[in-house]
Write a structure and sequence with these properties.
Length: 692
Amino acid sequence: MVGGIALALMLAAGQAGDVAPALDVASMTPAQRDALARIEKQTFFALPEENRRLIIGRIGSGDVPAETLANLPDWMVEQFSPEAQDERMHGGEPGDYTLVADIIDRETFEAMPNAHQRMLVGVYQKRLEVGHPLGALCFAPGTPPEVVEAFSIATGTNGAGPDFEPGTRWSNTASGSFPGAGNPVVLTWSIVPDGTFVPNAVGLGYSGPSTLRAFLTGIYGNQQTWIQIYDDMFARWAELGGLSYVYEPNDDGSNLNVSGNGQIGVRGDLRMAGIPLDGNSGVLAYNNFPADGDMVIDTGDSFYTNTANNSLRLRNVIAHEHGHGQGLFHVCPANQTKLMEPFISTAYNGPQLDDILATQWHYGDNDENNDTAGTATNLGPLSLGQSLTRPMLSIDRASDVDFYTIQVGQAAQITATMTPTGAAYAAGTQTSQCNSGPTFSTLDRANLEIAILASNGTTVIANAAAAGLGAVDTAIGEALTPGTYYVRIRQTSQATSDRPIQAYTLGIAVDPPPFPGIIISLPSGAPTQLDPGQAEAFSVTIDPRQESIVGTPQLLYRTASGQAFASINLSSNGGTSYTATIPGLDCAAEPEFYVAATGSVTGLNTSPTNAPAEVYSAIVGTITTVLSDNFQTNMGWIATADATTTTGFWDREVPNPSFTRGEPTVDADGSGICYVSGNTLNEDIDGGAVYL
């Protein structure tokens, strides 16, 4: 074991520290010293946690003799020695307040450590130089909120808006072009080799060779463990929205922070790196915005050595930083409910509701691009009695439409349910204290319609949207034949024009179709005129389909509204054919009637279907034809007109329409000839009246 680590263990045990280094570090080459530091770190972090805590506690207490401290590894002193941390934060020249006077008051500025003063000045000047936000910083818990807000102003990430804070988005990557807000994007990511130069890209004042691999391998003992943490983080963001991530195993070590620099087989769009920044606490990491997206964590901060809760500290830092890398700004209040709050918290794991809405606003939900029937998300076959639920979906704007397909192997009833999801919570732009924000309701941003479509992807079988904002809508339709059916979700109205994204959960269930009950039909229709005293028979068809008829079907009738109905059995003609007979009635009667049959499953069935609330009716009387004339022969009609009439005289002819005066195109019964008022093109009645 290296002497410095042996000495550290003796400190943990409370022993005197008279152990000399086992190796002559001064005579080593830089590469050998780097290798030695990696070995020392891996050895240290391989110790049981209680030993590490004892060592850190002794060094952090400040009671270690100077000669003993001098023999400890440099990295250990830098990370855990109060003197070294104090020098890093408070040493050196203070920042020039005049350069940041318009974003922070002097009292707050002068209360900041010199390192943070210099960082604030550098970040602000860098942003003013380029004219747009470059990246965003992530802060350790306990950093004064007014300091965090000043850095937010300096970086230009304190944009206006009442809810989640989206900035720019990716549209061109190593994998291709992905234009249009709300559309999915493919990003590649890689881990830079140690030694890759990290420039002072955002103005913090720190640059140098990346030490990410050595730093995290020193904590975890191997690369696989911490690389998996990065991979899991990207996988979670992919699960929640329209971003897809592909690990690029190659990285050529070219300088970090070059916009749009991803290249398949060479380096990722998103490059993971780390350099020492301001030491323990303060700035934990920073990340550039698209189309850069590179991430840098502070490899001089002991914050990451705490790997409790499955390394939740590291997980949330890199998930937060990649939120910036996909184009998201900070959001307040800092009440430990949103990943993109400026302070890191371990009260949650990864992106929360506000963060999910933000990424889906930029890149759509996980099922994009499914805006047409041709690109519908296939949910696969569903058998009778099966159902599925698909959460974390959204309609991100009025132009967004979600299509899904299912396949059924037999006739079925499809139930499609759209359940709006969300909550009301405080959320807004970053402020000096980051302790407040307007109430933002995500449950009722827009009203959605859900529809079941036939196999052609256009014919609507059933739809529902009437429940209103924030309410569940359910569409129920019958799939009469086996095949593919579609479910479509879209916006019908918006409660706000400002980012009206509405999240929802989709549910689809397939059940046996409703029982096909008795069908009663009247092939020739119901009689409308009855001769006095004469019985009137009419045809009835009763198809029992999948049940049997109980008893004998009946005709129910009464002679005036409000009376009780009398019943007469129908006469069976064999099969589904029956005859109903209305008895002879006198002329004073005003008969109403309906047909009824009882099914073994469905019970009472009627025609009309909602009888007796709705019934058939007829008049009783003898119809005498006084005159019948289709004008095919001249039966002596006399046509006259006022003396003042000039056009539009009655003529018995085949109509000759001009289609400009509303003339008939043919006679009423189609026999050919009729009387028309004027039969010249574009003629109407002028000057007076005409008579027939």
